[in-house]
Write a structure and sequence with these properties.
Blueprint: E1 8-11, H1 14-25, E2 28-34, E3 40-47, E4 50-56, H2 69-72, E5 78-82, H3 86-95, E6 99-106, E7 112-117, E8 123-127, E9 129-130, E10 135-136
Parallel strand pairs: 1-4, 5-8
Antiparallel strand pairs: 2-3, 3-4, 6-7, 7-8, 9-10
């Protein structure tokens, strides 16, 4: 069943972020709506049953309420994705230029986990622990 909770981000360079997120993290393009001048008005990227929405940073509309990590000075939240091979995923993200914050390691509650920053500073964690089942995938 698809997730009913969908995080949303603004990126200063959303077209580049889309390419990078797909390359580094293995996300897949579901929908990309381009606006004027190369702006991304709305994009949906998927990973398994999860989805991320994103767009180009702007002052109007929803942008009145949300800012970028660069404007905030640091990330204000993080995203967690469940996946089976944490070590291979970390290697892929590192090769794409992700800043690894926490190396892959076993967790006391089960599974392995690593954390990194994307190309604009958002914090992502990837783990083999599935909180829905309380077990490793």
């Amino acid at each position: 069943m698809p997730s009913s909770l969908i995080p949303s981000f603004f990126y200063r360079d959303a077209p580049r972020a889309i390419d990078w997120l797909c390359d580094a993290f293995g996300l897949e393009r579901h929908l990309v709506v381009e606006g004027e001048g190369g702006r991304i008005d709305h994009a949906e990227l998927t990973c398994g049953t999860g989805m991320l929405m994103l767009g180009s940073a702007r002052e109007e509309g929803y942008g009145e309420f949300i800012t970028t990590v660069a404007e905030a000075g640091k990330a204000t939240c993080g995203v967690y994705l469940v996946l089976a091979d944490v070590d291979a995923h970390a290697a892929r993200a590192r090769a794409a230029g992700a800043e690894i914050l926490r190396e892959p390691e076993d967790q006391p509650y089960g599974g392995r986990l690593y954390s990194c920053r994307d190309l604009e500073g958002n914090v992502w964690s990837f783990g083999s622990y599935d909180p829905w089942t309380g077990a490793e995938v």
